[in-house]
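Hi L.,

You mentioned the student needs an example of a multi-chain input paired with its predicted structure. This one should do, with 406 residues in total across all chains.
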Amino acid sequence: MEKKIITISRQFGSGGRTVGRMVASKLGIPFYDKDLVNQIALESGFAPKFVEENGEQAPGLSRLSYAFAPQGVPGVMNGLSTADFLWNIQCGVILQLAEKGPCVIVGRNADYILKDREDTLNVFIYADKDFRAERIVRLYGESEKSPEARLNEKDKRRRVNYQHYTGRTWGMAENYDASLNTSVLGVENCADLIIKMVEDSKE
Amino acid sequence: MEKKIITISRQFGSGGRTVGRMVASKLGIPFYDKDLVNQIALESGFAPKFVEENGEQAPGLSRLSYAFAPQGVPGVMNGLSTADFLWNIQCGVILQLAEKGPCVIVGRNADYILKDREDTLNVFIYADKDFRAERIVRLYGESEKSPEARLNEKDKRRRVNYQHYTGRTWGMAENYDASLNTSVLGVENCADLIIKMVEDSKE
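Structure written out for the whole complex:
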């Protein structure tokens, strides 16, 4: 079965977004990450920054409040929590994007949302903690918290969010078609490995 | 860091052994699987068939008994359980094999045993349950138990053994440098992906 949609789930700081962008660029297909977030935001009426910060949180960890919701939204939300409301919108947007044609989608549990499409290749990108710590300081700068604390916090958010919405354990190989460690294999090499998987699927 | 030793951990019926044999053959390096078991057996004095059946069991699940041990072994074992005694011998054999030069080692928790060697590439091979069920019936024939029951039993043994001796959770992507699903990617394609990883590591 030819793989046309590539989803990338990634640990914070692993270079997963970069891998996804490289794959999309080399294959000449659309790449959805922040653009996706913005589209979700436009549909929901939430501010893009708000969606970006809260779109990968599970309700339990969330500091969401109706106070941040756009005017009129509480009525539209039909009694759903803000997180569940966002989740529903994300599902709809991701299903529509996949319908439009070949693409790379990073994050947002797209692997799970598209689980009924056999033309989807689901990849998990991760890396050793030292590599990720060095990378987040280089790319996003220093902060009050140590790089390790920032990694632990983000990892926990994604783990809880994934578990909550998919019922699966975050980081288990079986959730994906392939898992690749960028700190061992190299970021660009991982992109090339994914491209080989896509090419092989055409045979 | 150039990867010279390739370890393959695999789900029963996933084709992991075949992938390992293909990688070794294409790279022209030794392949250790049953040969390894036999060597362990010779060193321990246990019968090869006995080692093969019990080498991937954890003590709790094991039906091992000193009654099966070769003459004189209980004294040599220094109070270790038979399973722990086998584990110690396995560690020694695998460390020696890796010292001898490039090779592919399938199973026996070699990924963990060689964790201090940076020239080791650790790969996890798995597959969807239907693919594995069809494969074990084709390769190993029917048995009294259903294919699903045989898979569940073997999976449980490997999971418990791995957890017991490594303290890690079996099947987590982070335990390995790469994880590949043969039922999605294809057995021979997985071998080629591993060869690409080895080639890339020389750059």
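You could point out the following to them. The longest helix of chain B spans residues 147-166. Chain B touches chain A through 23 residues (CB under 8 Å).

Best wishes,
N.
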